[in-house]
Design a protein that fits this description.
This protein is of the alpha+beta class. 25% of the residues lie in helices and 41% in strands.
């Protein structure tokens, strides 16, 4: 956090799951908590990247400074995404999710995304719309609700989640 406030680069040794250790010097932009894990959004010198703090083997603040862009906004950077996975090749999509029973109440009081709106509500279900890039972490979140949700649109998302559920079912 201090390196972010002081605009100082960080030198780190990082190990992704199943990969070799890599060494990087990066410009830290923001810390973000997602799914009980802290992440650091950095500029690598070429692109933005997100690193999980629990996979950093070592980290030290350098004397080298960097200039944070004056117009950088974490809310804007992550605004079209569910969590920390960002992928510009995943198109911004109008998603419709139907939540049944008590799941609708949970979704109403704890929205999945800031764009979430109620499109339709009955005694049995509520349809929510979201404008989001459906990255794997968003899909994983939808899968957490088991039979409490149904993905109505777009058809590609419904098909993707249906295939995942079939694989899960075949394991039993």
């Amino acid at each position: 956090a201090m390196a972010i406030r002081l605009n100082r680069r960080l030198h780190m040794h990082y190990q992704r799951f199943g990969c070799e250790v890599s060494e990087k010097t990066v410009a830290p932009y923001v810390l973000k908590l997602c799914g009980r894990r802290w992440y650091l959004l950095v500029f690598t010198g070429h692109h933005m990247a997100t690193y999980s703090l629990d996979r950093m083997l070592s980290i030290e603040m350098t004397d080298e400074t960097f200039e944070m862009p004056a117009d950088f906004s974490p809310e804007q950077f992550f605004g079209e995404y569910y969590g920390v996975l960002t992928d510009e090749t995943t198109p911004l999509t109008h998603v419709v999710v139907r939540a049944y029973g008590k799941t609708a109440n949970y979704r109403r009081t704890l929205p999945l995304h800031h764009s979430q709106r109620v499109a339709d509500a009955t005694e049995d279900y509520t349809d929510f719309t979201l404008d989001i890039r459906p990255t794997p972490d968003f899909i994983g979140e939808l899968l957490k609700y088991d039979r409490g949700v149904e993905e109505l649109n777009p058809p590609e998302l419904r098909l993707t989640i249906g295939k995942i559920r079939k694989v899960m079912l075949n394991r039993y």
